C-alpha cells in the first residue's frame, strides 16, 4: 500500500495525458505579455485596495519592508515554480509538480489545499468586490436595498445578538445587519437576504472563463492596464502630499507589529502561482512561464512598496484602519475626485483578480481528473471553446453559492496556510529534481548556489544573533509553560528542527541554497499564523484524505495501469 501511495508520474506520462485524456488539448494562445498581465491581475487585486490599510495600521511605515521580505520569499518560490514549469509544462500548478517529485498522496494533499487557495479565496474576493461595487454606486447616487447586498449569515447572527444583548452590544456594521434582517422581505420566519452583487459578478466571470481563454485574456489585459494606471496615478499624485514626519516612528510597534500583517500581505502576493495553471495554453511555456513569474513579482513589489510609503506619508498610520485606505487618504486631503477614481478602479482591480483565480481552479481539477483522482467529467474539454467546461461550471457554483449567503472573512488566513504548504513542497520538489538528475532536462533552472556549508553557517549565525540580541524572545519562551509552548510554539520548534535537518542534508547532498531559503522563509511565515487556522486546515486535510481513499486511491490511472 505504501508503494501505491507514493507512486509517481513521469514527465512523459503527464504530457501524454494532457493531449489524449478528456477530449484533446487546450488552445495555445498566451504569450509572455499575457502571462505577466494575468499575474499582475491576480496579485494587484483586493490586497492593494483593502488589506494594505490594516497592515499599515499595525506595522506603521515599516510594512513597506514586509512587502519586500514577502516578495523575497516569493522570489525563492517563484524560481522553483519556474523550474517546474519549464520541466513539466502542463496545467495543474503545484499539484502536478508534487506528483512528479513526491508521489500521489502528496499530490492529492496539495491539490486539495489548492482548493482553499483558489475557490475559497475567490469567495472572499467576490464579497470584497460587492462592498466596493455598492460603495461606488452610492457615490453616483444609486442605492441597492441592503437585503440584496448583505450575507444572510451576517444578518442572522447580528439579529440574534440584538435579541440577546440589545442594540448597545452591537458594532456599527452589526447594527446595520440586524436592521437589514428586520426590514427584509420574509416568507414566514425566513428572511430573504443575499449578497446579490457577489453572486452576479462570480456568475459573469465564470461565463467569461467558460467561453474561452482568448476572451479571458483580452478582458484581463484591459483591466490590468486600467488599474496599473490608477495605481501609478495614486503614487505620483500622492507623492506631492507626503509629509516625511508621518514616517516617524518608522516601526512604532516593532517587528511584532510589522509581522502581524504577514497573512494579509502574503495574501496579496499569492496570485503569481496562478500563472502556472495556464501552462497548456501558453505558446512557449518552457520559456515564457519562468520569465512571466519573475517579471510580475518584480513589478508588483515595486508598486506595493511605493504605494505603502505614499499612504503612510500622506496620513498618520494610526488613521489607516479602514476598508478603503486609498480612497480614504485622498478624501482626508480634500481630493474627492481622486477618491472617486480609486473607488471605480478598485472594482476593476478586484474583478481582474476574480477572473484569474476563477481561471485557475478548473484547470487544477481538470488535471486531477486526468489522473483519475476526480470524476472523469472534470477533464472534459469543450469541443468549441477549448476550455474545461464542466470543471469551470462547478468552480462557478462552488464560489457563487457561499458568496451569496455567507461571510467568509476568516478564510483569509486559512487560504494563506494552504498556499504556504504548497510553496514549501514546490521548493522541496526542486531539491528532489536536482538530486535525481531530472533537472538536466529543465530549460530553466534555479541558479545553483552550493549550500554544503552555507545552510549550516547561516543557522549558527542566526542562533548566535538570537542569543545576543533576542532577549525579548528568550524571555517570552522562558515565561511559557510546557502546555503553552505546545499550543503556541509548536510550529516554531518545527521551523528550527527543519533548518537543522536541511543543514545536515545540504552538507551530505550539496543541496542548492535558494530552494532551501524558500522552504525556510515560507515555513517561518507559517509560524506567524494563528493556531485556529491550523486546526481548521487539519480538518480540511482529513476530509480530503477520506475522499482520496474512498475514490482517488482506487480510480487512479496509475492504479489502473
From TrEMBL:
Keyword Transport: yes
This protein's UniProt keywords: Membrane, Transmembrane, Transmembrane helix, Transport
Membrane topology: Multi-pass membrane protein
Origin: domain of life: Bacteria
Transmembrane regions: 35-57, 63-82, 190-210, 222-242, 254-272, 292-317, 337-360, 387-405, 411-433, 453-470, 490-506, 511-527, 533-551
Organism expressing this protein natively: Olivibacter domesticus
This protein's name: Amino acid/polyamine/organocation transporter, APC superfamily (TC 2.A.3)
Localization in the cell: Membrane
Domain Cationic amino acid transporter C-terminal: 514-556
Keyword Transport listed: yes
Source organism phylogeny: Bacteria, Pseudomonadati, Bacteroidota, Sphingobacteriia, Sphingobacteriales
PANTHER family from the UniProt entry: CATIONIC AMINO ACID TRANSPORTER 4 (PTHR43243:SF4), INNER MEMBRANE TRANSPORTER YGJI-RELATED (PTHR43243)
Principal place of residence: membrane
UniProt cross-references to InterPro entries, sorted A to Z: AA/rel_permease1, CAT_C
Amino acid at each position: 500500500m505504501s508503494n501505491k501511495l507514493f507512486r509517481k508520474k513521469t514527465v512523459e506520462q503527464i504530457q501524454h495525458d494532457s493531449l489524449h485524456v478528456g477530449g484533446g488539448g487546450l488552445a495555445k494562445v498566451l504569450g509572455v505579455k499575457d502571462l505577466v498581465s494575468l499575474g499582475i491581475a491576480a496579485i494587484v487585486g483586493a490586497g492593494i485596495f483593502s488589506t494594505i490599510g490594516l497592515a499599515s495600521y499595525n506595522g506603521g511605515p515599516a510594512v513597506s519592508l514586509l512587502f519586500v521580505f514577502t516578495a523575497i520569499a516569493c522570489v525563492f518560490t517563484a524560481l522553483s515554480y519556474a523550474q517546474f514549469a519549464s520541466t513539466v509544462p502542463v496545467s495543474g500548478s503545484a499539484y502536478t509538480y508534487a506528483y512528479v517529485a513526491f508521489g500521489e498522496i502528496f499530490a492529492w494533499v496539495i491539490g486539495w489545499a489548492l482548493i482553499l487557495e483558489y475557490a475559497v479565496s475567490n469567495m472572499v474576493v467576490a464579497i470584497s468586490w460587492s462592498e466596493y461595487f455598492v460603495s461606488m454606486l452610492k457615490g453616483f447616487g444609486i442605492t441597492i436595498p441592503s437585503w440584496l447586498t448583505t450575507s444572510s449569515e451576517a444578518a442572522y447572527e447580528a439579529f440574534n445578538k440584538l435579541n440577546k444583548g440589545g442594540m448597545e452590544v452591537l458594532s456599527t456594521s452589526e447594527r446595520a445587519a440586524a436592521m437589514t434582517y428586520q426590514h427584509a422581505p420574509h416568507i414566514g420566519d425566513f428572511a430573504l437576504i443575499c449578497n446579490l452583487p457577489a453572486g452576479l459578478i462570480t456568475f459573469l466571470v465564470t461565463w467569461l472563463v467558460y467561453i474561452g481563454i482568448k476572451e479571458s485574456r483580452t478582458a484581463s489585459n484591459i483591466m490590468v492596464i486600467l488599474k496599473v494606471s490608477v495605481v501609478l496615478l495614486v503614487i505620483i499624485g500622492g507623492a506631492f502630499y507626503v509629509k516625511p514626519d508621518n514616517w516617524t516612528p518608522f516601526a512604532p510597534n516593532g517587528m511584532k507589529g510589522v509581522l502581524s500583517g504577514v497573512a494579509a500581505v502574503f495574501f496579496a502576493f499569492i496570485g503569481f502561482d496562478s500563472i502556472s495553471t495556464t501552462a497548456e495554453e501558453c505558446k512557449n511555456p518552457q520559456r515564457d512561464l519562468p520569465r512571466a513569474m519573475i517579471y510580475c513579482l518584480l513589478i508588483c513589489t515595486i508598486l506595493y512598496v511605493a504605494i505603502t510609503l505614499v499612504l503612510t506619508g500622506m496620513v498618520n498610520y494610526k488613521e489607516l484602519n479602514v476598508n478603503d485606505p486609498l480612497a480614504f487618504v485622498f478624501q482626508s486631503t480634500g481630493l474627492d475626485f481622486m477618491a472617486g477614481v480609486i473607488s471605480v478602479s478598485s472594482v476593476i482591480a478586484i474583478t481582474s483578480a476574480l477572473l484569474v483565480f476563477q481561471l485557475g481552479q478548473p484547470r487544477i481539477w481538470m488535471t486531477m481528473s486526468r489522473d483519475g483522482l476526480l470524476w472523469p467529467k472534470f477533464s472534459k474539454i469543450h469541443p468549441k471553446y477549448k476550455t474545461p467546461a464542466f470543471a469551470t461550471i462547478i468552480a462557478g457554483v462552488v464560489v457563487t453559492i457561499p458568496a451569496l449567503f455567507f461571510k467568509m472573512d476568516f478564510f483569509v488566513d486559512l487560504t494563506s496556510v494552504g498556499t504556504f504548504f504548497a510553496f514549501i513542497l514546490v521548493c522541496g520538489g526542486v531539491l528532489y529534481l536536482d538530486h535525481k538528475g531530472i533537472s538536466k532536462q529543465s530549460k530553466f533552472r534555479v541558479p545553483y548556489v552550493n549550500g554544503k556549508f552555507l545552510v549550516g553557517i547561516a543557522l549558527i549565525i542566526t542562533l548566535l544573533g538570537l542569543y545576543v540580541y533576542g532577549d525579548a524572545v528568550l524571555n517570552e519562551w522562558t515565561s511559557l509553560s510546557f502546555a503553552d509552548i505546545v499550543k503556541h510554539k509548536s510550529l516554531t520548534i518545527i521551523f528550527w528542527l527543519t533548518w537543522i535537518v536541511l543543514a545536515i542534508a545540504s552538507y551530505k547532498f550539496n543541496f542548492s541554497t535558494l530552494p532551501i531559503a524558500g522552504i525556510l522563509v515560507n515555513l517561518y511565515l507559517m509560524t506567524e499564523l494563528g493556531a485556529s487556522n491550523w486546526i481548521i486546515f487539519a480538518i480540511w486535510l482529513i476530509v480530503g484524505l477520506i475522499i482520496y481513499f474512498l475514490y482517488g486511491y482506487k480510480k487512479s490511472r496509475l492504479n489502473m495501469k
